[in-house]
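Lab meeting notes turned into a lecture example. A postdoc, R.K., suggested we walk through two folding results consecutively so the class can see how the record format repeats. The first protein's sequence and structure tokens come next.
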Amino acid sequence: MTMPLTSVTKDPATLTLTVVGDYPVPQQRLWDAFADPRQLERFWGPPVAPAIFTHHDFTVGGRAEYFLSLPDGSQWHGSWKFTAVNPIDSFEALDGEDNAEDEDMPAGMTFTFETTPTGSRMTCVTQFSSIEAMEETVPGMEEGLRAAMPQLDALLTELEG
């Protein structure tokens, strides 16, 4: 079932990175992978830096806190503050204060989920605060996403199969 990301589009005019992935599973199943922190940590972060979610209050105003375990043994901490949660259609989050001192971090993310004729589609739009932040962050972010998202395919296959 493994499917690559459908598209990764950088738009400097709107300071956004848009990632689209199509999956041969129902929209509810795709949503569940993002709503459950035990499933989310199986694909959020590249294989060499797996994510551990220590908190996941998936409600408006709630927070998700996680860290990536880096190959050198160190940890990179991140968090999201959920500003909108519309099961099973979309959610929005702002990057947390853990990253507030890093001006290159994205300002926010919007995930949308929809049913397609072959299953479901995830669209993630990441908003950056400046062109400099976008140019600094996007290459590594795109590399990380391309490494991480096949893990989502594997998770969906495992749980559907």
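The second example is placed directly after the first for contrast:
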Amino acid sequence: MSRSVLFTLRILLALLFAASLTAQVASGAIAGAAQAGPLSGILLALVVTGALCVEVVLVSVWMLVAMVQSEKIFDDRGSADTWVNTAIGALLAGAVVALGGVIAVVIVQLGEPDAAGWPLALLAATAAGVSAALALLVVVMRRLLHTAIQLRSELAEVI
């Protein structure tokens, strides 16, 4: 893989990590300014936990990029699986947290309706769907990685 592609990817990962960290730090002020009451707490919890899940995925991708750079991604010991499974777990956790946010917002909306409640529920539902889809995509990519490792091992035996 080209060094420039890996370098660019690492820069983008670092920028995304910094943006996620900034969102976590500023989430209290944003939630307080945007809403008052129970929706503020739900929004704060969603932003903080969602950003944490994103950070775990970014660290996992960073480690996988390092393995690609050192050509250890096709290692037979399955060391790449640890980081791939970590990313899948973080994405699934993000989906569950977002789904919990949807349920909490709907319950709050049924009790005391707020104009910002339904858009927040829609945003959380979208985040849950995107996170679940990405988790399934990474599961497919993990299977492709295993197939590539197996094919490489078979080719090495032939040669």
